[in-house]
Amino acid sequence: MNRFLLLLAFFSLVRPVLADEGQHHEDLTAKQLGTVHFPVSCSDSVKQSFEQGVALLHSFWYEEAEKTFRQIAKDDPRCAMAHWGVAMSLWHQLWNRPDAATLQKGEAEVTQAKALHAKTRRERAYIAAMAAFYDHSDKRSHRVRAYAYSRAMEQVHRRFPDDHEAAAFYGLSVIASRSGKEAVDAARKEDAIATLEKLFAEEPDHPGAAHYLIHIYDTPEMAARGLPAARRYAKVAPAAPHALHMPSHIFARLGLWQDDIASNLASIAATHQSSEMHMGGEGHQFHAMDFLVYAYLQSGREAEAQKVIEEVKAMPPMEDMYGMGYDPRISSLVELEASYVLELHHWADAAALQPVPGATPGDSAITYRTRAIGLARTGRAAEARQDLSHIESIHQQLLDEKKEDRAKAVETDREEAEAWIDHAEGKNEEALKLLRDLSEDDEGVYAAGDGIPAHEMLADMLLEMNRPEEALVEYEADLKLNPNRFDSLSGAAQAAEKAGNTGKANSYYAKLVEACAGGDSSRPELAQAKALLAKK
Fold first, then answer.
1. Is 200 left (phi over 0), alpha (psi -120 to 50) or beta?
2. Among 480, 498, 499, which residue's Cα sits nearest to residue 489?
3. Which of 147, 279, 311, 475 could disulfide-pair with 492, CB 3.0 to 4.6 Å?
């Protein structure tokens, strides 16, 4: 089914839900957001809205959740839990660390919640847990505060074992926190899995249960366990753009490209529809586009991938998303353009790539890395080293600014670029060592912004060096982490063929053709696979 038909099919399902342009989040129902049961001691008039706010939290629709809880605080000024809800909405647990201003806002909401003296022990426990995160008076690190919140939510869950919301929020808190002790984290992760699986079995329409199981299973090793939750979540909360996108995390991990594509097309369509209704969250479409372009490129749909990139280029600038200091459209454009040329091995286009105006230093490093690889692979190593110097400068800048996580990502960009420059200069053992070291930390990829997997780059380099047996080992290592990746399937087939293993070569060629079924790719690797299989 092409993109237009998928969009039509999706709109036919959600148009009755979101048809009225004057409609907003308050008109959405449990059938559109999922079912939650969160009793509060607030006035009866706000209880339904409160549960809707919690459902919005579970699907990370933070903008609308915050609006809901702030309205509740106006409608019932004695509702302490309304301020808990606002504080929960301000902290987006899995993808950002609140800055000082946001921490102050959250702390003020917690202070207000305490001052209103919630009427039940359960409500006071929720507020106390939230206070454990927002208490930054002693300048504790984000990780320490997140872990303190998680431990507090664990106690809420233990004290109120029949409270499904406590179970869900406890599970989320474990995903969002790390103690720094691997054995402790592993034990807590297993406990969170057991808690969420029990909740999912008892209440399959609970949006948090399905959502958080997808997150906790979002690894190459565990992805298959997340498939039931992935199949369920979009049905549970069909009006929430994130709920429509989130299953694609599992689909991408498993190489289920058609499911991945359908999931993200639906999410993008829902985002556009909610934006027309002046509901927040339009920035989320770029995350879905990241996954969508990646799935298109792995399944022989390069023209569709290019259309998405052109759409992003044509969009106007966006307001800062969540106060995180960047325009998500610019970051998306940087990542999509880099991914397109690298995945398709368009080395000349990669060498000519230009930095996107307004990009952050970290995003610019992606462009310089891509350009350096393109230059190195077209025999222009000296020019590539100029781009390498730009990456090194950005890395130092981020270290000076104490942005260690971003600096680490830029260091990876530098090592990848240097490996291909070394290879171009004939320093093959140095190049191979760089990529082998990177491959030890390879955790799989599932979106365009993740770049090219280290195992695959290592395999490509070994194949160019006419070492097919070693290349095949690396391609197969990558396919364990990233099933059905186009280049690894094609490369494994070519490596096996050069190594004299015709049976294995034919098997990989067949898998490549199957992964691209229904596409219109003109890539020479796919044409070769089809031609060779036609002779069998």
1. alpha
2. 480
3. 475
- Report the alpha-carbon distance of residue 469 to residue 189 in Å, rounded: 38
What whole-number distance in Å separates Cα of residue 486 and Cα of residue 461? 16
How far is residue 120's CA from residue 213's CA, in Å, rounded to a whole number?
29
Q: Give this prediction's pTM.
A: 0.91
What is the token pair recorded at 328? 């998500």
CA atoms within a 13 Å half-sphere pointing along the CA-CB vector of 252:
28
- The SS3 call for residue 307 is helix
Contact in structure between 247 and 227 (CB atoms under 8 Å)? no
Query: Which residues lie closer than 8 Å to 231 by C-beta, 6 or more apart?
Result: 247
Domain ranges of the chain: 36-202, 328-452
What are 110's two structure tokens? 């917690």
Give the C-alpha separation, 418 to 392, whole Å: 11
Angle, CA of 234, 238 and 244, to the nearest 5°: 45
CATH architecture assigned to 36-202: Alpha Horseshoe (1.25)
Tens of pLDDT, residue by residue over 290-348, are 999 999 999 999 999 999 999 999 998 876 655 556 688 999 999 999 999 999 999 99
